[in-house]
């Protein structure tokens, strides 16, 4: 290379010197590129640069998220208890109705007549009982010995008892007639929403298969049911028993919160109060249910919500940054450093802590973890701290971009 430079400088004419300068520059670029490609002496590649992040052992909060569905706390079928024709309907379909409000009216005329008959029978029975009591008192009032036979006295006592029993029977029939008459007015059994009217005015109903009139649902409080995988359920039980998972201080039960489909959180927190005894074999899940106050009736049955279970914490947990975690198919791993050499291993990934980090089990005693460049570092690579920087997209000058290729295409 130096001989070529000397030849260029020793050239006699100015034109020859000007022609050799571009060739000199070209050879210099080739030489520098070749030297950089060869790397340091000995053929060894320089150690890759990685960024180091501190790993901390601390108590971290634990939360779970599932998809749930709202359910009515009570669902009642409004049915007719007697046979008759519907005369009136006193509600608007889909309205929110208070308990005891009138819904339907069934023709009461035949039941009013039955009540009058039963009332008359009660009056007759009372009269017979009164007469039997008077006859028995007269016979007992006779003081002459032998004037009244013992059989006659026994007969009058039996007649009094029979009249008393007949009066009780008449009163029972009257109560039944009054009850049937009250069934002609169908009222709301609870406070909640009522669905569509299943029978129109003029329809014949009875107390059998043709009795369903409407369906009402109570939404305050409201239930939220969600499915928990069998693995999560078993993890809860095992880690709670081993002390790896515990409720936060001052809490007796996990806190349940929900987020609506539009992303807004529901204002009231719920209480986890039901765990199904059976495992759903088709999906491998366990059904859990929480109860929420719903005074403003924001929630209606059938809504999909996101369920957030909070209130747990995991003590003595190693926390590493999110960007230090590498995920592969079927497993997750991270790298950590204790000296100037790199150690790597596969550990079970715990629940994430949002954008701040991920909690890991099994990395006890690690002091620093890799965050960048761990894929390029080998088992004996030396780690060099380097500041994290944003990746920039570099265009290949030899490869035109899509717009330029489309523009050059005839």
Task: Explain how this protein is built.
The protein is built from 6 helices and 20 strands. It is of the alpha+beta class and about 400 residues long. The chain is elongated.
Provide keyphrases for this structure:
single chain; 410 residues; alpha+beta; Elongation Factor Tu (Ef-tu), domain 3; OB fold (Dihydrolipoamide Acetyltransferase, E2P); six-stranded antiparallel barrel; five-stranded antiparallel sheet; 29% helix
Task: Outline the biggest β-sheet.
Answer: 6 strands, antiparallel, barrel
The structure class reads alpha+beta
Strand order of the largest sheet: 2-9-13-12-11-14
Q: What is the percent of helical residues?
A: 25-40%
What would CATH call the class of the domain at 81-217?
Mainly Beta
Report the principal-axis shape.
elongated
Uncertain stretches: 11-37, 337-346, 353-368, 374-387
The CATH architecture of the domain at 81-217 comes to: Beta Barrel
* CATH homologous superfamily identity of the domain at 81-217: RNA polymerase II/Efflux pump adaptor protein, barrel-sandwich hybrid domain
Count of separate DSSP helical elements: 6
In angstroms, what separates the terminal alpha carbons?
45 Å
User: SSE string, helix = H, strand = E?
Assistant: HHEEEEEHHEEEEHEEEEEEEEEEEH
Which fold name is given in CATH as the topology of the domain at 81-217?
OB fold (Dihydrolipoamide Acetyltransferase, E2P)
Write down how many β-strands occur, each being a DSSP E stretch of 2 or more residues.
20
């Amino acid at each position: 290379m130096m001989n070529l430079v000397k030849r260029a400088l020793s050239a006699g004419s100015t034109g020859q010197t000007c022609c050799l300068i571009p060739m000199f520059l070209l050879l210099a670029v080739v030489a520098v590129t070749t030297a950089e490609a060869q790397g340091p002496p000995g053929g060894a590649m320089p150690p890759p640069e990685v960024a180091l992040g501190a790993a901390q052992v601390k108590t971290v909060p634990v939360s779970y998220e599932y998809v749930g569905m709202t359910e009515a706390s009570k669902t009642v079928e409004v049915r007719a208890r007697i046979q008759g024709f519907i005369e009136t309907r006193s509600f608007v379909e889909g309205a929110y109705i208070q308990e005891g409000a009138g819904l339907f009216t069934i023709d009461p005329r035949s039941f009013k007549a039955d009540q009058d008959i039963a009332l008359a029978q009660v009056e007759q029975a009372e009269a017979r009982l009164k007469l039997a009591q008077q006859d028995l008192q007269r016979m007992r009032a006779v003081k002459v010995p032998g004037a009244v036979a013992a059989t006659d006295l026994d007969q009058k006592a039996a007649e009094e008892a029979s009249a008393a029993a007949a009066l009780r029977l008449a009163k029972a029939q009257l109560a039944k007639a009054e009850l049937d008459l009250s069934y002609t007015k169908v009222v709301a059994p609870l406070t909640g929403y009522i669905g569509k009217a299943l029978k129109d005015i003029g329809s014949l109903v009875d107390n059998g298969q043709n009795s369903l009139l409407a369906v009402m649902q109570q939404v305050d409080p409201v239930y939220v049911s969600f499915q928990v995988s069998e693995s999560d359920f078993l993890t809860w039980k095992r880690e709670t028993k081993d002390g790896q998972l515990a409720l936060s201080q001052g809490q007796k039960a996990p806190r349940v919160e929900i987020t609506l489909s539009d992303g807004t959180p529901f204002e009231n927190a719920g209480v986890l109060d039901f765990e199904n005894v059976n495992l759903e074999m088709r999906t491998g899940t366990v059904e859990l249910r929480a109860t929420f106050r719903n005074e403003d009736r924001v929630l209606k049955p059938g809504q999909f919500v996101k369920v957030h279970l909070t209130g747990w914490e995991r003590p003595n947990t190693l926390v590493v940054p999110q960007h230090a975690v590498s995920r592969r198919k079927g497993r997750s791993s991270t790298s950590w450093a204790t000296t100037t050499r790199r150690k790597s291993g596969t550990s079970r990934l715990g629940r994430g802590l949002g954008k701040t980090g991920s909690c890991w089990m099994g990395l006890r005693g690690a002091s620093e973890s890799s965050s960048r460049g761990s894929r390029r570092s080998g088992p004996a690579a030396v780690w060099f701290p380097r500041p994290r920087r944003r990746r920039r997209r570099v265009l290949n000058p030899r490869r035109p971009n899509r717009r330029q290729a489309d523009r050059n295409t005839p």
